[in-house]
Specification:
mainly alpha; 8 helices; 78% helix; globular
Length: 167
């Protein structure tokens, strides 16, 4: 039972693990790049390509987790001034807009990745297919929608709102 819970927790936070691993790789390579450039006078010519890929993967991998933990930036001041019923209406409206935008981006990401697939475009130095770099986008959009509904069902609020309510 404990083993299953650990596995479930790991899989439930796989996006966080991926983003963390890629962030660690980004930091390590950037640090090594600075050392090689300054100390040895031999910069990594391919470093910028890997940094770009890492940043894309970090942003998309962590997107779902940000929804799940209520860490996306939001401006709730105006909504909080409204009566309780109007706040509920706003929450529903915001949910529809968020899911609609993410669904639209999900749909558009296939066309975007399809262009890279048809053209076979790769990065100039390492020849990493752009399809691989941006291929995380549709997966991330699905995880964002699932995490959005998870946070709604669990009643997860932004950290700022929890801090204000805790006072």
């Amino acid at each position: 039972m404990k083993q299953e819970k650990k596995l479930s927790s790991f899989l439930g936070n796989l996006d966080v693990w991926v983003a963390s691993a890629v962030l660690a790789l980004l930091i390590l390579l950037t640090f090594a790049g600075v050392i090689w450039r300054r100390v040895f006078g031999a910069p990594f010519t391919w470093l910028e390509e890997v940094q770009l890929a890492c940043m894309v993967w970090i942003v998309f991998a962590a997107g779902g987790a940000a929804f799940r933990y209520g860490n996306h930036v939001s401006i709730e001041m105006v909504v909080d001034l409204l009566p309780q019923k109007a706040q509920k209406v706003c929450e529903v409206f915001i949910s529809v807009v968020v899911v609609g935008v993410i669904a639209y981006l999900f749909y558009q990401s296939f066309g975007f990745i399809g262009i890279f697939a048809k053209s076979g475009r790769t990065t100039p130095m390492l020849h990493i297919p752009y399809m691989l770099i941006y291929g995380i986008a549709p997966v991330s959009y699905v995880l964002m929608i699932v995490s959005w509904f998870y946070s709604l069902v669990r009643g997860i609020k932004s950290e700022a709102k929890e801090a204000v309510e805790g006072e």
